[in-house]
Amino acid sequence: MLKKDTYDVVIIGSGPGGLAAAVAAKKAGAEDVLVIERDTELGGILLQCIHNGFGAEIFKEDLPGPSYAQRYIDESIELGVETLLDTIVLEVTPGRKLYVSSRQHGFFEINARALVLAMGCRERTRAMIQIPGMRPAGVYTAGTAQRFVNIEGKMPGEKVVILGSGDIGMIMARRLTFEGAKVERVLEILPFLSGLNRNYVQCLQDFDIPLLFKHTVKFIHGKNRVEAVETVAVDDKWNHIPGSEEYIPCDTLLLSVGLIPENELSRQAGVELDPLTGGPYVDESRQTNVPGIFAAGNVVHVYDLADWVTLAGYEAGKGAAKFAMALRASEEVHIPVLAGNNVHHVVPQTINKRSLEDEEIELQFRVRMPVEDRVMIEVHDGKNQIARRLARYARPGEMNTITLKPKNFADVEKASSITVDVHPR
Amino acid sequence: MVEKRRLICISCPVGCELDVTLDEGKIVDVEGNSCKLGLDYAEQEIFDPRRMVASTVRVKNGFHPLVPVYTEKPIPKPKIFEVLAQLRDIELEAPIAVNDVVIENVLDTGINVIASRDMPKV
Fold first, then answer.
1. How far is Cα B116 from Cα B103, in angstroms, rounded to an integer?
2. ipTM (interface predicted TM)
3. Domain boundaries, position A385
4. Label partner for A265 (CA 20 to 30 A): which of A327, A399, A416, B69?
5. pLDDT by residue (tens digit) across B47-63?
């Protein structure tokens, strides 16, 4: 099992946002910082983005995704960030309790003084854009194909059509060309590029891969495996233009048609989402509407550059550390009041030790069993007596009290809890 | 002879459109750039176009079957597929550390191909 069940800052996700939040939380003074990652290693999607173009903003260098991730992985480890890999968060409560499951530890709970949501985003799929046709194998999102090729060493196909001119789609067009596939077309329904200009130049133009604006897929052909896609030109309202169809034989269709913030856990925790972004409403410290729950990166809104995600992660990590430390300080001032021998319950259940400096605190309680003789009511910290009072009897039907006074402050200040006992005299 | 070329700068994510004017094979004017990188890019792209190349190399006994690698600096564009062919013939042995040299001075370019992450042994 885990060494602790309560952490200052817990971060869900170890992509650029999550790792930056972890590093920033540590640097801002949070003692116990935990990153939970569902994959078997840290780094998130950066690990499959083997192309360069990362780090221009932060490092003034042109790095591939894995190198960029490696810097933050190394820094987190140096700073003593704890990690749980191959671990999935099942649910988050508004009180920041996490229900978690992993093959190694089974089912368990973790309490977070502050939580950073850094789950990133998901790709839109064929079902979400409703492409008509058969349902053969060979239709993948661009990111899935990227994982196959760059991490698992498997090619999705040999003759490829790509729908959508997003960055991942264009980058995969180049990557598949590098690995010997033929990319027949990139189709974009809009009259302009969805991704960055530089990716058009170095991923499509360099390899003479045709990009057609105002075109989409009309039909997917193939029984078991994609055999062809039928493309069509569209007008300004995305209506198909009859007669513009083209039948392109291919075995693979990649979709690069947008990303959606992944917020299932956020919703359960009561985090309000902005319909315009699909991500949480946040303030400048990246705190959501739920106090102590922060969010950063593609889970908030989809970014074009990982560097910006890192910077957002820094803000969330700093904010979370500040929140956690304030909570920790208040936990140290508040101590529980426990029902001891022959006591059913005590109210208040918690006291702020500092209140005793200048005012009395009356503890109200009921006994469990009647005692028709003189009793001693005692408050202690487990070892030493703090206050006591004699009573002529004690009956469950009658509420009883004992009052702590400012003169008891010195004793109470040292206590981590106090207990009320009732003993026969 | 005056010649006009239109380029898109790839030095940063902005992607400025550059209008380059050449006279007798020399650049006499560049318009559309928003910083000095654009001028350097135009010079480079017209006389010696180069690209960063990123790919993967097979790994024996690694946490994954591949390790990602890249050229430390942009290499001449016509050499891209030759570099890729060399990488296809290599098999490394885990563990590998980030920045380990995979091919030194690839195709006599003076540029190394290096690993872009640690690849632990299993």
1. 13
2. 0.92
3. 340-424
4. A327
5. 999 999 999 999 999 99
